[in-house]
Amino acid sequence: MTQQRTTKQFEAIRKAIDSAGRPLSIEEIHDVASRTVETVGQRTVYRVVRQLQDEGMIVGVSVPNGSDRYELASIASKHHHHFHCKACDRFFDVDGCPGGLKKMVPKGFVLEHHDLTLSGLCAACA
Ligand SMILES: [Zn+2]
Ligand SMILES: [Zn+2]
Questions:
Q1: pTM score of the predicted model
Q2: Contact 68, 81 (CB under 8 A)
Q3: 54-96 pLDDT per residue, tens
Q4: C-alpha of residue 80 to centroid of ligand 2, in Å
Q5: Ligand number with the minimum distance to the CA of 82
Q6: Residue 82, strand partner residues
């Protein structure tokens, strides 16, 4: 029985991340998974998230001064950026990249990577 419940919880958590279409925090994953499986504890969410990370299915999105978000590795592997809504604290994927950042780099430096998070209000909060 325990095994079956664990599998159900695992599936609910995996599905929550899979169908979100945006990076989710542990709390958000917990909220969504709780709608499908009644008995899913936050600790279980942590454990499954770590397991999915180890398996390479999802990756963490580190958030300065906030809790980490998680997104599918298949999405993370495509260069994209995020929008953070200050009102509801949700993260969204945004299309495109301004580019041209090499111009900002001091002479002799080699640019290898950039992170960019836009912030403001999402459509629901604006
Ligand atoms: Zn919002
Ligand atoms: Zn970019």
A1: 0.86
A2: no
A3: 999 999 999 988 999 999 999 999 999 999 999 999 999 998 8
A4: 6
A5: 2
A6: 93, 117
